[in-house]
Write a structure and sequence with these properties.
23% strand, 4 helices, single chain, 2 domains, Alpha-Beta Plaits, alpha+beta, four-stranded antiparallel β-sheet
Length: 132
């Protein structure tokens, strides 16, 4: 808390009160521990562009439910362009990523097409939001 106080020019107690207020109002939604993926056996990362079969509301909602149930998907964003969604997916190996795409995404009947970009090396992950 002292580092935040120093950066903002407030006392530590003022910072603590403001952080609690931000938590109470929902601006701060939680805290996480950052775990190195490779240290837990996740050696493959891919960004998967997904085009849906249908753009009907029930199909989109079914896809979003699928995304929520798959722990390998750590991020999902609706995007512009030729595809509808961009997924960030972790797996133990490239072969496991292939199985995930084939058995979970394409086999679902909700997905028309995918395009994958495998991450070769991560240079920055989960940086802080540029608000300070």
């Amino acid at each position: 808390m002292q580092e935040l106080a120093d950066r903002t020019g407030l006392s530590a107690s003022q910072c603590w009160r403001r952080v609690r207020d931000l938590e109470a109002s929902g601006v701060v939604s939680g805290y996480t521990a950052q775990v190195r993926a490779k240290s837990v056996g996740l050696n493959a990362i891919a960004y998967i562009h997904v085009a849906l079969q249908s753009h009907q509301e029930d199909s989109i909602n079914a896809f979003l439910r699928l995304v929520e149930t798959e722990p390998q998907i750590v991020e999902c964003a609706s995007i512009t362009g030729d595809h509808d969604f961009l997924l960030k997916v972790y797996a133990k190996s490239p072969e496991d990523l292939e199985l995930f795409i084939m058995q979970h995404l394409l086999k679902s009947g909700l997905v028309r097409d995918t395009r994958s970009n495998f991450v070769l090396r991560q240079t920055k992950t989960r940086g802080p939001l540029p608000i300070l």
